[in-house]
Structures are given as structure tokens and as C-alpha cells.
Design brief:
Elements lengths: L4 H15 L4 H34 L1
């Protein structure tokens, strides 16, 4: 089920009601930083696996 513009608007409205307009930018920044850190960590694990596989192939 894809999210359309109406669904996104409703979610944004509910988020503003729950958290308030002042805290939303802080929440967005924290979420972005968390996702970036998670992405970097998973990439690091994948790179480590690739390095280990290359060493076994030699």
C-alpha cells in the first residue's frame, strides 16, 4: 500500500499534534542522524564480510 499525498499530510498533522511544531525539526534531525549511523554500521559490516571473503579466496 503506497503512501499518497493525503496519507502523508494526515501523518504530518498527527505528528504536529503529538510532538508540537517546535520539537519536529529536532526529531527529524535525530532520526536522520540515527539512520545515517545505522547505514554506516551496516555498510561497515558488509565491507568486513567482503574483505573476509577475499582473504579466503586467496
Amino acid at each position: 500500500m503506497p503512501l499518497g499525498p493525503g496519507s502523508i499530510a494526515i501523518i504530518a498533522f498527527i505528528a504536529i499534534l503529538i510532538f508540537g511544531a517546535d520539537k519536529l525539526p529536532k526529531l527529524g534531525k535525530a532520526t536522520g542522524e540515527s539512520l545515517r549511523e545505522f547505514k554506516n554500521a551496516t555498510k561497515g559490516i558488509a565491507d568486513d564480510d567482503d574483505d573476509a571473503n577475499k582473504k579466503q579466496d586467496k
